[in-house]
Write a structure and sequence with these properties.
The protein is mainly β and 290 residues long. It contains four helices and 15 strands. An eight-stranded antiparallel sheet has the order 1-4-13-6-7-8-9-15. The chain has a seven-stranded antiparallel sheet with strand order 2-3-14-5-10-11-12. The longest helix has 15 residues. The protein is globular, with a radius of gyration of 19 Å. GO terms for molecular function: hydrolase activity, hydrolyzing O-glycosyl compounds; xyloglucan:xyloglucosyl transferase activity. Belongs to the glycosyl hydrolase 16 family. It is found in: Secreted, Cell wall; Secreted, Extracellular space, Apoplast. This is Xyloglucan endotransglucosylase/hydrolase.
C-alpha cells in the first residue's frame, strides 16, 4: 500500500508539471496602474518591484485566469515603518458577484509585527476575515505564500505551513468559489484609513518610497477558458492533480501545524465576532474546516 501511495503521489507531481503555466512576471503579468512605480526586471523576468509614494501606488495582474490549482509567490514586504501600507496578493474574478481569495499584509510601525489578513469572497460576499501575526520578519528575506484551491477546499500556506482552511460545504447551502475563473493580482497601496490600528496610524510619508518585492511567481493551475472550464477543471482525473484524494484534506501532520499557527498567532476570527453579526454567526463557523 505504501509503495502504491508513493507511486500515485509521484504520478501527480509529474502530471502537475503539464499544468505549470510559464509564470515569469515578464511573460504572465502586466502592470495595471502606477506604471512609473512598478518594474519587472532581472533574473530572467522573475523579479517584480512595486513602489508606493505620495503620488501613487502600483499593481500588476496575470494575463489569464485560473480555476483550481496552486498559486505561489515569494514576497519580501515593505521594511521599516510600513504603517498604513497594504501589500496585497490575491485571486479574483470580476463583477459585482465576483469570487476572491485574499492574502493582504498590513504594515505597522517599526518593531511591531506584520498582520496577515485573509478573506474569501463568494458571489460578491466576503466578511470571512481571519488575521494572524507573522512569526518571523517578512522584510528581512523572501518567504513563500501559496494559495491552494480545489473543488474540496482552499488552503492558505506560508512557507509550506497551512494557516487557514475553507472547506466546500455547498451541499449545505454555503457558497464556495468554484464557477468563476480568477486572475492573480498583486498591489502596494495606501490604506491608512483602516490598515493599522483601524486607521489610527497614518502613513509617514517621510519614509517613502515604500517597496515590496516579489519573485518566482508560479501557477500550477487549470487555465480558465470560459464556462467549459467548470467541468474540465473540476473533474477528477490524473491531469487535474489538484483533485487527487491526497489534496482533499490536510494530513494529520499539516493539521497539527495549522493548529499551532492558529493557537499561537491568530488575532482575529470572524467566526468569533458575535457583535459584528448581531449573534447570527455564519453557518460555516459551526462546521469542521480542517
Amino acid at each position: 500500500m505504501a509503495v502504491l501511495q508513493a507511486f500515485l503521489i509521484a504520478l501527480c507531481i509529474i502530471v502537475s508539471h503539464q499544468n505549470l503555466v510559464d509564470a515569469k512576471f515578464s511573460k504572465s503579468m502586466y502592470i495595471t496602474w502606477g506604471t512609473q512605480h512598478a518594474t519587472i526586471q532581472g533574473n530572467g523576468g522573475e523579479d517584480l518591484n512595486l513602489v508606493l509614494d505620495p503620488f501613487s501606488g502600483s499593481a500588476v495582474q496575470s494575463k489569464r485566469g485560473f480555476l483550481f490549482g496552486s498559486i505561489e509567490m515569494l514576497i519580501k514586504l515593505v521594511s521599516g515603518n510600513s504603517a498604513g501600507t497594504v501589500t496585497a496578493y490575491y485571486l479574483s474574478s470580476t463583477g459585482t458577484k465576483h469570487d476572491e481569495i485574499d492574502f493582504e499584509f498590513l504594515g505597522n510601525i517599526s518593531g511591531q509585527p506584520y498582520i496577515v489578513h485573509t478573506n474569501v469572497y463568494t458571489q460578491g460576499n466576503g466578511s470571512k476575515e481571519q488575521q494572524f501575526y507573522l512569526w518571523f520578519d517578512p522584510t528581512a528575506d523572501f518567504h513563500n505564500y501559496t494559495i491552494h484551491w480545489n473543488p474540496t477546499e482552499i488552503v492558505w500556506y506560508i512557507d509550506s505551513l497551512p494557516i487557514r482552511v475553507f472547506q466546500n460545504y455547498e451541499n449545505q447551502g454555503i457558497a464556495y468559489p468554484n464557477k468563476q475563473g480568477m486572475r492573480v493580482y498583486s498591489s502596494l497601496w495606501n490604506a491608512d484609513n483602516w490598515a493599522t490600528r483601524g486607521g489610527l496610524v497614518k502613513i509617514d510619508w517621510t519614509s517613502a518610497p515604500f517597496m515590496a518585492r516579489f519573485r518566482n511567481f508560479r501557477a500550477r493551475a487549470c487555465k480558465w477558458n470560459g464556462d467549459i472550464s467548470i467541468s474540465q477543471c473540476g473533474t477528477t482525473s490524473r491531469a487535474n492533480w489538484w483533485t487527487s484524494p491526497i489534496y482533499s484534506q490536510l494530513s494529520s501532520a499539516k493539521r497539527g501545524q495549522l493548529q499551532w499557527v492558529r493557537d499561537s498567532f491568530m488575532i482575529y476570527d470572524y467566526c468569533k465576532d458575535t457583535k459584528r453579526f448581531n449573534g447570527q454567526i455564519p453557518a460555516e463557523c459551526f462546521i469542521q474546516q480542517f
